[in-house]
Amino acid sequence: MRRILRAIGSERGQGLVLGALALFVVAGFAALAIDVGQAMHERRELQKAADAAALAGAGELPFSAGDALAIAQEWAEKNGIDVAGELSSVEVTSTHAPNDTITVQVERDVPYLFARVLGFDSQTIHATATARVGSPAAMAGLRPFGVLESAIDYSGSTPLKYDSQNVTNGNFGAVAIDGNGASVYRNTIKYGSDTPVCAQGQLGCTNSTIETEPGNMTGPTRQGIDYLIDHTADACDEFDKVFVPDDGTPNPNDYTLTDRCNPFRPGGADDSQQFIVTPVIDHLCDGRCDVTVLYFAVFFVENLGSCTGNSCEVHGRFAKANVDVGGLIASYDEDSAISFVRLVD
């Protein structure tokens, strides 16, 4: 009996020891999980800071690498980075064009609070962000007007679509992006194209050819443009309400968009239907033919002519705009009407 009791007591003692060890291990892993969770939170905050700094710096490219570096440092500090101890490097490089890319690297030493009991004192976390300035290589959402490069005028109001008095060969500027026919043309004016189109010569793009849409297309043009004007808010119904001069470039014709009137911002902006993007084409022809898309143009629709009979012109203003229109980003093209910065890594 005594041997049995002694054995039971011994087992109880061993159980207490094992239970204490298990509790210690569980507590250690719980502490480690808390500290690792904190490190992951710091990693996310570091990445946000690096992203913001890279995007801000890229806004000065490709015109001033020095300003890009200074702005990136400034935005890193605004987002909680100790520039002296946590900003590892900021570098401007050339990827597809001179001084078109900026990379920001940050790091932070995160001390552990609880995991020290397991011998872990701290963790150094890193974040890197690379942003690039470029022009669109391909995009959907285009309006079906083919603009001749020679017809783009940034100095004031100009026709987007011609009438029969201006063009003599049967093409008036309409193009078929999503297909042929009046109803397709009208709906593409209203809602933009579903078919992505490439600019000529861009890497990874092969679809840079579209068809012209012969005829004046008077009724569908009137219906489509009236829709855009009727669905634009008063706050975005004038050029100067939508476009703001871009102080980051030396060109007085360069603009950015007000946030409310930018249809390409995250979530979209239905307030600004009069702001459209069109393909710039290499030529017009007699009847239906293939034309090549050179790049893309930004246009603000101001008004519509009488649009009866054979007379139907769409008037407005061209602008060079710093706005991310979506689609693929290509190399920066100073001749393109659109440029934007985007995180690429």
Structure explained in plain terms:
- With 345 residues, the chain is an alpha+beta fold.
- It has 2 domains: 2-133, no CATH class; 141-326, no CATH class.
- The protein contains 5 helices and 15 strands.
- A hairpin with an 8-residue loop joins strand 11 (275-281) and strand 12.
- Residues 4-8 have low confidence and may be disordered.
Give the N-to-C terminal Cα separation.
Answer: 74 Å
Strand content: 25-35%
Estimate the mean pLDDT confidence. Answer: 84
The coarse silhouette is elongated
The SS-based structural class is alpha+beta
Regions with little confidence, pLDDT below 50 for 5+ residues: 4-8
Oligomer: single chain
Question: How would you sum up this structure in a few lines?
Answer:
The chain is α+β, with helices and mostly antiparallel strands. The protein has helices at 2-58, 65-78, 182-191, 218-230, 239-242; strands spanning 87-93, 101-111, 122-139, 147-148, 158-161, 175-176, 197-198, 209-212, 243-245, 254-257, 275-281, 290-304, 314-322, 328-330, 338-343. A hairpin with a 7-residue loop joins strand 1 (87-93) and strand 2 (101-111).
List the helices and strands and how they pair.
Layout: H1 2-58, H2 65-78, E1 87-93, E2 101-111, E3 122-139, E4 147-148, E5 158-161, E6 175-176, H3 182-191, E7 197-198, E8 209-212, H4 218-230, H5 239-242, E9 243-245, E10 254-257, E11 275-281, E12 290-304, E13 314-322, E14 328-330, E15 338-343
Parallel strand pairs: 4-11, 10-13, 13-15
Antiparallel strand pairs: 1-2, 2-3, 3-7, 3-14, 3-15, 5-13, 6-8, 8-12, 9-10, 11-12, 12-13
Helix pairs in contact: 1-2, 3-4
